[in-house]
Design goal:
The protein is mostly beta strands. The protein has a single domain, classed as Rieske [2Fe-2S] iron-sulphur domain (Rieske Iron-sulfur Protein, 3-layer Sandwich). The protein contains no helices and ten strands. The strands form three sheets. A four-stranded antiparallel sheet has the order 2-3-4-8, with no helix packed on it. β6 and β7 form a beta hairpin. It is globular and about 45 Å long. The N and C termini lie close together (5 Å). The structure holds FE2/S2 (inorganic) cluster. FE2/S2 (inorganic) cluster binds next to loops.
Amino acid sequence: MAWHRVSLSVRVFERRSSVLVWVQGRPILIARVDGKLYAMDAVCAHVGCALLSSTEGYESVCPAHEAKYDIRTGALVAPPRIKPELPCEEEESKVPLRTYPVAERDGLLEVEL
Ligand code: FES
């Protein structure tokens, strides 16, 4: 494992609670809650939609079918609201989503993976 610098200032959190970044080809959701940073895979385990929505407290909500994840652990805290017309099966979920150490260095974000 190695630390990878994200070319994004921590000042981004002055205007939003979370941000989606790419680190070593992986989409990672970075969020800040009460001054502490969290990083988690940003691909929903349901059918693979990107976790693009802003976080609400420690929860990241998938915009597709509203599955909720805890950004501290990657655990699924609310299952997807499966729509009958979609071929989604909750049983296929692979949770928890992977989480990563994240830090601020010199005003920029770094993720270890
Ligand atoms: S893809 Fe995220 S809840 Fe369905």
